[in-house]
Amino acid sequence: MITEAKKDVIKATIPVLEAHGTEITTTFYQNMFKAHPELLNIFNQTNQKIGNQPKALAMTVLAAAKHIDNLEAIVPHVVGIAHKHRALEIKPEHYPIVGKHLLEGIQEVLGDQATPEIIDAWGEYYNQIAQVFIDVEQDMYQDAAWDGFKPFTVKKKEFMTPDIVRFTVDSDEVDKSFTAGQYITVKVRPADYPYEALRHYSICSNKTVDGITFAVKREGTDDTKGVVSNYLHDGIEIGDALFLSAPAGDFKVEEDHGELLFIAGGVGATPVMAMAEEAIAKGNDVKFLYSAINETHLPFKDQFENLEVEGADIRVKFSESEGYLNRKDFAGNENREIYICGSMVFMNAMINELGEMGIEDSRIHFEPFGPKMSLQKV
Ligand code: HEM
Hints:
Elements: H1 4-35, H2 45-50, H3 52-66, H4 75-87, H5 95-110, H6 116-143, E1 149-161, E2 164-170, E3 183-188, E4 197-202, E5 212-217, H7 227-235, E6 241-248, E7 259-265, H8 269-281, E8 285-292, H9 301-310, E9 313-318, H10 319-322, H11 327-330, E10 337-342, H12 344-356, E11 364-368
Parallel strand pairs: 7-8, 7-10, 8-9, 10-11
Antiparallel strand pairs: 1-2, 1-6, 2-5, 3-4, 3-6
Helix pairs in contact: 1-3, 1-5, 1-6, 4-6, 5-6, 8-9
Bound molecules: protoporphyrin IX containing FE.
């Protein structure tokens, strides 16, 4: 166990880390990729460019430092991240690599401020945090529906809107069961890209008779053009093989609360539609508020129609003409358990609006399409 003296050293460095957190992790990533270029096959290079991932790691390290007297408090956060790590095949042997370069990043950015005492305390504490992740991930590897990445055949490719495509993929070799709200992870190697690339996509329906369905939005423009989403849109057709790792993720309907409110924006409807399908099948009362840009950008019409037939109360609001969903749309649903999914901007807007209405955090469950920790209060 880490000594009280070392804990004090870590606590004392929190303000410095807060000031330099993103800078340290950015330096750390640059140095780590230089020493271990093979990791470029695992990390999302588009996230690196736009800075999301460095921020997420910084927030997690900070959360851990703030909870040094009670490391258990970070376990709920670790679970969501560990699901992503498991889906990406992050293994125990990767942790010392991250630890070494993280400490060197602290050293490089803080210079003389990072005394040997500080580096030593953080080294020991990093190992403890890493062990929490490794232990949680070990159980997830054991529980996964299949090992590693398995080939699936593309059975359907359906354009939902000009920029969202829905794939149905199938395999006879694996058990396709999953919990509504989970995602699969796709591994591709586009011809004009020097690495393998991995991305998570939420499974968008509970119905698996034809296979697993997931939807992909074409991401970015020019410099930030999404490598994988554009490849899947333009380069993958019916009959092609796609490699998937087993379903992962902890976004799910917690209990059968009876009355549920699902809120989603754009392609964020994907996990929430599967959750709503499951909740209705279990007899819950389901209300679904959906924000789309306009009629042209209204995806999943067939699934929304089915949900309505099955008993869901669905309202679609077009943000272009009517604005975002807001407290007027939420009024009357204050007692429902709430599940939200959408872009980071959408999530921030919804969480703030619901918070200002006085709805407790514990009743708001969410899954942003982006690193969750950058929305988390730590
Ligand atoms: C994702 C933290 C170790 C590879 C993440 C995320 C966080 C995080 C917060 C974002 C999760 C989200 O999207 O919500 C940590 C911490 C670690 C650690 C605190 C050490 C204790 C590792 C290791 C590897 C790794 C050892 C592999 C070398 C990744 C990858 C992603 C990720 C590839 C996906 C995001 C991307 O590709 O940009 N991690 N991680 N992590 N982590 Fe870790």
